[in-house]
Structures are given as C-alpha cells and as structure tokens.
Amino acid sequence: MAERQWIIFSYKIPTEPSSVRVRVWRNLKTLGVHYIQQSVCIIPSREEVKKKLRKLELLIAENGGETTVLKIDKLSEQSEALILAEFNKERLIEYNEFIQEANKFREEIANESKKANFSFSEIEENEVELRRLKKWLPLIKSRDYFSCELQEKTAALFEECSFAFEEFTNNVYKHEGIIGE
Fold first, then answer.
1. What is the mean pLDDT of residues 1-28?
2. pTM for the full predicted model
C-alpha cells in the first residue's frame, strides 16, 4: 500500500470579526478536513487541497491571524487507522443524510403519482429538489477521500431519483396531452 501524505493545518484568528472565523471554518469543512482539536485539522495532501489551503492562509493573514502548515509523510499505523475511520465516519453521516433526502424525493414522486397529481407545478417543485440533490452529491464525493462504503449506493440512488422524475414528467406530459400514451 502506498504511503499517504497528510497536511496538518493549524490557525489562530482574532475573535472579531467573527465572520472571518466562520468563513475559514466553512471553507475547511467544505474541503472535508478532520479536526484533531480546536483550530487544528488534518487532511490528505492533494494539489487541489494545497491550493485552497494557501488561499485560506492569505485570508487568515490579511485578517490578523496566523497559520501553521505541516506536511506529514507518514502517520503511525494506529493513528492512520483512527484518522481514516474518522474521515469515513464523517462521510457516512453526510451520505446517510443524502440517502434520507433522496428517499423523501422518491416518496414524494410516488405519492404524487399515486394521487395522479400530474401537474407542471409538481414538475417544477420536484425539479428543484432533484437539482439540489444533483449539486449536493458531488460535494460529498469531493470530500470522500477514502471511498466510503456508501459512495456507490448514493450514486445509484441518485440515478433512481432521476429515473423516477423522468417517468413522472412523462406522465405529466401524457396527462396534459403533450405526448401520446
């Protein structure tokens, strides 16, 4: 197995304005870091990660803060196993939330179909939700550095949602006489 390289990113930011702290935290969470302790996080070393961390370093420095970036060539086996488990646990939480929302979407389509509520407003409403799911899944995958066990299941579930929406849309078109039976 190839050795994984890691980055430890530590930062201090003045308490005011709090918007800078929130912005840094949100950017780091979007990257998918794992917090080891307050203001100290670890993430796999990848080029796109390094670029984003450099931008955060500038933001922090411009606002009177400090950063420390450590490149780690090797973790102990025990530490790496623990950190990998934490990364995957965090992704499992996200994937499970996605699964819940995707299942709600499928239930909504099924309920509207069962009631024969085939209207353009239902297409619009469901299309908005499908777009939200479509945008959300790649964000989770971008943080899934170690191919969490639910990655494939969520991709398949999204495809099921897309198919259900397509079928529902066709039923609306048939109901409205836009396409034949």
1. 91
2. 0.88
